[in-house]
Write a structure and sequence with these properties.
Blueprint: H1 10-23, H2 25-33, H3 38-59, H4 70-94, H5 97-103, H6 107-119, H7 125-143, E1 147-148, E2 151-152, H8 155-180, H9 185-200, H10 204-208, H11 218-246, H12 248-252, H13 259-269, H14 276-293
């Protein structure tokens, strides 16, 4: 099955809105992980999402995917709602929000590569050129180790976020394949986070040393709720829909725009300041998306 290449503006608009919201995820995760253990942040994000996702999917009477789609559904649920939030939360606590936001911009590279592998096709040369330039920006970013204002970067944290990005991309492609197979993106998201929450719920008291909520400020818990309900539920529904109707590789390149909102929020909310390597990385990443998006 090949990716659908819709030419309408609606999938692009939906994808852009989602990407702007996702751009804030690094800052929000950083805010939450400063007061709450990062593993608990990742687990709580999924559990709280499941508390909303399960009633919604039952109320809307959305059925589970057919048996032949169980593998894609399982990959989507695990990567998107278990592996990524936990690994990303740990990595983001160890590095700056600006680094985390820019590293997430590598998602289109992983998304396009996973999609090309699954669909057994070769992306065009211009896409490869744009991704190469953007990935060069990621290399500059990850290898730079200077402090940037209120936070310093960490090689381990950067690499964990990079690995989390690869995991998220695999989940994106699996979810988009379900949409292309005529399964509702809302079902993929709501059933995915509901089932994932059932699996992670027994782990929560172990990671948190009990069932009680950790003591944290309203700002920290507000960040967790935004990550659970807006970033995870609303974001994934819109993203899977856009990937399924606009084409995986075509929509995937829009993720290069994700760092913009993250950089602005990190500057104003966390007091982080840009550095020269970060500026070079930003230019290379945005140049890469312009080249890749032209194809």
């Amino acid at each position: 099955m090949t990716s659908q290449r819709g030419t309408g503006w609606l999938p692009v608009l939906v994808a852009l809105v989602v990407v702007l919201f996702w751009g804030a995820s690094s800052v929000l995760t950083k805010i939450a992980a400063r007061e709450i253990d990062p593993v608990v942040v990742g687990l709580a994000r999924t559990v709280l999402g499941g508390l909303v996702g399960l009633p919604l999917v039952l109320m809307l009477r959305i059925s589970l995917p057919r048996r032949e789609h169980y593998l894609a559904f399982g990959i989507s649920a695990f990567c998107g709602f278990i592996g990524f939030p936990i690994m990303f939360s740990i990595g983001q606590r160890m590095t700056s929000a600006m680094h985390g936001g820019l590293i997430l911009a590598v998602l289109p590279i992983f998304t396009g590569l996973v999609a090309a592998t699954v669909e057994r096709r070769r992306p065009p040369g211009r896409w490869w050129l744009g991704c190469t330039i953007a990935f060069a920006g990621e290399v500059v970013l990850v290898t730079s180790r200077s402090a940037n204002g209120a936070a310093s970067s960490s090689l381990t944290g950067d690499l964990l976020i990079l690995l989390a990005s690869a995991m998220a991309a695999s989940g994106y492609v699996a979810g988009a394949r379900l949409t292309q197979a005529r399964y509702a993106s809302m079902g993929t998201t709501l059933w995915g986070i509901a089932i994932a929450s059932v699996f992670v719920l027994p782990v929560y008291p172990i990671a948190n040393d009990g069932w009680a909520l950790p003591a944290a400020s309203p700002l920290a818990w507000g960040a967790v709720l935004f990550l659970a309900w807006i970033t995870s539920i609303a974001g994934y529904i819109g993203w899977y829909w856009a990937l399924g109707h606009g084409g995986i590789a075509r929509m995937g390149t829009l993720q290069f725009m994700q760092p913009l909102s993250g950089l602005v929020l990190a500057f104003f909310l966390l007091g982080e300041r840009p550095t020269l390597p970060l500026g070079i990385a930003t230019v290379l990443i945005l140049l890469g998306v312009v080249i890749a998006r032209r194809r």
